[in-house]
Design goal:
Elements lengths: L6 H18 L3 H27 L2 H27 L5 H26 L3
């Protein structure tokens, strides 16, 4: 039986889809450095969440921890994008809010794993 797709995966997928469009609009000097790094790290978050979905119970926490750490890296890179004026404040705020929500979903998922015997 296929596991139900966790909400965090859907949220991460939507965030990446939105980010890719914004990253394509970065100035050329930042698109292939900062933009590429943001995209690759966001994809690592999605990968870790997918691995957590299908991992045996004892391995889920490691993947969730990896996803959370990678998300923190994306947040910092996104803040650098704002500070280097690679992204405007309004889209920056939108994505930052989505990242906070994703982090909360990962946190809820992690806490639910703690309660499983």
């Amino acid at each position: 039986m296929e596991p139900k797709t966790p909400q965090a995966i859907d949220a991460c997928h939507e965030l990446i889809t939105w980010l890719v469009v914004k990253l394509d609009q970065f100035p050329r000097a930042r698109r292939y450095t900062l933009g590429q790094r943001i995209e690759a790290t966001a994809l690592q978050v999605l990968e870790a969440l997918l691995l957590a979905t299908y991992a045996p119970r004892g391995e889920k926490m490691a993947h969730l921890k990896t996803a959370n750490i990678q998300l923190q890296i994306v947040r910092h890179l996104w803040r650098i994008a704002l500070e280097t004026q690679s992204v405007a404040p309004k889209p920056h705020r939108f994505a930052a809010e989505q990242m906070v929500a994703l982090g909360q979903q990962i946190g809820l998922w992690t806490r639910s794993q703690d309660s499983i015997p």
